[in-house]
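Table S2 (text version). Query chain:
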Amino acid sequence: MKYIKKKLTIDKVTIHNIAKKFDTPAYCYSYNQLKKNIDNFKKNFKSFSPLICFAIKSNTNVNLIKEIAKFGLGADVVSLGELMKALKAGIKPDKIVFSGVGKTSEEINFAVNKKILLINAESKSEILEIERIAKKNKKNVDVGIRFNPNVDAKTLSQISTGKKENKFGIGEKDFLELTKYIKKSKNLNLKCLSVHIGSQILDVKPYENMLKALDKIIKKANYSFEYIDLGGGMGIDYKNNKKMLNLKNYSRNIKRFLKNHNSKIIFEPGRSIVGNIGTLISKVTYIKEGHKKNFIILDVAMNDLMRPALYNSKHRIMPAIKIGKKVKKTYEFVGPICESTDKFLTINNFQKLFEKDLIVICDVGAYGMSLSSNYNVRPKPIEILIKNSKIKVINKRQKLTDIV
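Corresponding structure-token output:
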């Protein structure tokens, strides 16, 4: 996004033109930024050619996943619905990894019959259920075990997944026992060691600790894994302060790790692929003057963008037209929903706003629309993709008649 003659644009298309044609609120994605992100990811890890499985949970729009599939990416899924969407988007089954702690028998059965690359199991009970279904279907199923390395990702507690108190993965003792069990199974092939320590990680150190933990557990298991699934979790620059995860350093650490382990690396990035491609366009409905701050009441709400209410996360907000005149009073950007947590950002020294003005909320491509709901019986926004300065509707605005 950049200002051209004081008008905010996405790939040369002005926010005003988008809002005029499609109304607000509207999710808008940049194809150019998507391509840039994928190319950058591939470039940084090209020395060992990993299988990149896009984390579908971060953005579940089938038309966007179709674009991602064209770059050769696979998919990381955590539910039957996500698996079906990945297949519908044209991702080949042999590039799909099924993660998650609570896969049902129906989900496992579907995955087995579709012959996906891997089912990464997270408990002994799940392994026994996969084995039962494999036996019933008279098939051999390739599985992985998700190891919990007890590594602190130094991120939000709500998105930490690699510590022993988290529900994900299994500890060392159980991991070693399961490895022995699967080796003896007639219907299961142990192909993968999987790990994922959290999300929005900006420091390489947690990944270094994770790789050390993997090195130890592989030596103790005395097993050669065809795949090492390192998960995702790479963070993005929400604050626009240029603080980014150093992918080159992470790549160097993995190369050192691979000197001792002849395995194919799998990644499951979501946010780092789509996070900064998305903006949410909104209109100022009312400006409510308060004693110490003015409430900027938007037509977008926590049902459209849940992250601030769920994680207390901060997304930058930008005016659609830059006028330069700033106000001394504090602005609090809020939505119309009947919850005090329905707010997006409190900021000083913002430019002066008026009712009916347009603003954009930045970096909403990941966990924006995928976490949206119909709370307060509010229809979900339209989703559009800008590709080569052309606008394409990739998900129509929900109608009230659809949900009433």
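Notes on Table S2: The longest strand covers residues 278-289. The two ends are 36 Å apart (CA to CA).
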